[in-house]
Amino acid sequence: MTSQPDRFANDSQRPIYHFMPPANWMNDPNGVIQWQGQYHLFYQYNPNGAFWGTMHWGHAISDDLVHWRHLPIALAPTPDGPDATGCFSGCAVNNNGVPTLIYTGVTGKTYEIQAQCLATSADGLLTWQKREEAVIPTPPNGMNTPGFRDPYVWREADGWYAIVGSGIPGSGGTVFLYRSPDLIEWEYLNPLLVGDPAVTGTMWECPNFFALGDKHVLIMSPLPLREVHYMIGSYANHQFTPEIVGKLDTRGILYAPLTTLDEQGRRLMWGWFTEERSVDLQVSAGWSGAQSVPRVLSLLPDGNLGIEPVPEVHALRGQHHHFADLGAGILDSVRGDALEIIAEFEPGAEKCGLTVRRSSNGEEQTHIYYDPQKRQVVVDRRQSSADTPVDLLEVPFDLRDGKSLKLHIFLDRSVVEIFVNGRATIASRIYPSRGDSLGVGVFAEGGAKIKTLDVWEMASIWE
Ligand code: DQQ
């Protein structure tokens, strides 16, 4: 199955170049791995509708990180198994040539029994054989944790290591660290780190832990905050000491991202983009959730996290429009709801940025700009939609002195994904209702100007 079903052909909200399942509900990316050159993306999937429940692992494959083909469901709950009520999130590793998924199996009416399970494939990642028993069946030391899930596994010189997302009762969110010679027998070591509950919540979902440059990075999605946090620091003696902390996509729709190291040595990341419209609207649309554009993480010279879209997405670029020295106004020659936009300018004292998805009469429009007074990137969505209004999104961004600003925007129907100066990301949703909300313009106050503006019309990732 390669294409998206026809039933969505006239749905002007449904993204065309952010990865989505053929229909129904998707949440976290799972088990992302490059295997013999091809990229595999698994994901939390509910085949029964566009709402969360009966978690399966959907599966897709790509030769180029851009165009994807859907494959059959990889994991489904096994009645009476440790994953009887759901196959929750996890990762994929190459165990000496054997593709192996390590994921959380859940049982119980409220998914309260959580155990780490394992499955292997003997036919090139198409079908999966589960081990009957969980490989890490319970939290360490009989602890009654608020959750025990989302294993993330890597290899070190003395064996396999895993972290499992959890929380210490009466304390903060944590990840428990384990070691194994064979991915089957696991020895509990210690918490890799315990967070301050006032800052990073009480339960960490979907942790990732990996080397980046000469540092280590921990990414997690803490509850009850439902944000994505990262920590850059040092890893020694099975302990992690954070030195720099931050958030990904502050106040946005990104959640539960997952990373992998590809064959080029790049640290790639995908993340779930949630919806910002009612459950009823999601169910009636027949789809919910998208993945971010694949991103590359790096360590910047100043020690902070660098984050950029993979260059492969350039393959989707169609017609190109270039402008220089542009003040406020509507662009007559550019229209579209699937665009890549790069705007560069030197912020002065006034707000400056773009307007997208503008209807001919201006009833619907979304402004994306930098506010130098408040030091914020703003996505003003108050007029984005005549029938599904969303609020103003204001994200702090400190422009270091003398720096110009680069807003790199991926507009994809209802998705607005923004990379700011290669070191911050913002993603949000808009749901314009008018068929003519396709206009693009420069949004600027007090004579502010954009130095250069490049816009590409983007193609679909589906054949
Ligand atoms: N989603 C999965 C869990 C994970 C959560 C269930 C994060 O494994 O903790 O669908 O979105």
Characterise this structure.
The protein is mainly beta. It contains 2 helices and 34 strands. The chain has 2 domains: 22-311, 5 Propeller (Tachylectin-2, Chain A), CATH 2.115.10.20; 317-458, Exo-inulinase, domain 1 (Jelly Rolls). 2% of the residues lie in helices and 54% in strands. The longest helix has 7 residues, at 279-285. The model has no long low-confidence stretch (mean pLDDT 95). The structure holds 2,5-dideoxy-2,5-imino-D-mannitol (DQQ). 2,5-dideoxy-2,5-imino-D-mannitol binds at residues 27-28, 44, 55, 88-89, 104, 149-150, 205-206, 255-256.
CATH architecture descriptor name of the largest domain: 5 Propeller
* Percent range of helical residues: under 10%
The secondary structure category is mainly beta
Count of helical segments? Answer: 2
CATH fold annotation of the largest domain: Tachylectin-2, Chain A
- Write down how many β-strands occur, each being a DSSP E stretch of 2 or more residues: 34
Total domains, how many?
Answer: 2
Oligomeric state, counting identical vs distinct chains: single chain
Order of strands, main sheet, comes to 23-34-25-30-31-32
- Mean of residue pLDDT? 95
Query: Which molecules other than protein and nucleic acid are bound?
Result: 2,5-dideoxy-2,5-imino-D-mannitol
Q: Based on Cα principal axes, name the global outline.
A: globular
Q: Give the radius of gyration.
A: 22 Å
Low-confidence stretches: none
Q: Into which percentage range does the β-strand content fall?
A: over 45%
CATH class of the largest domain: Mainly Beta
Largest sheet geometry: 6 strands, antiparallel
Under CATH, the homologous superfamily of the largest domain reads Glycosyl hydrolase domain, family 43
Distance between the termini: 10 Å
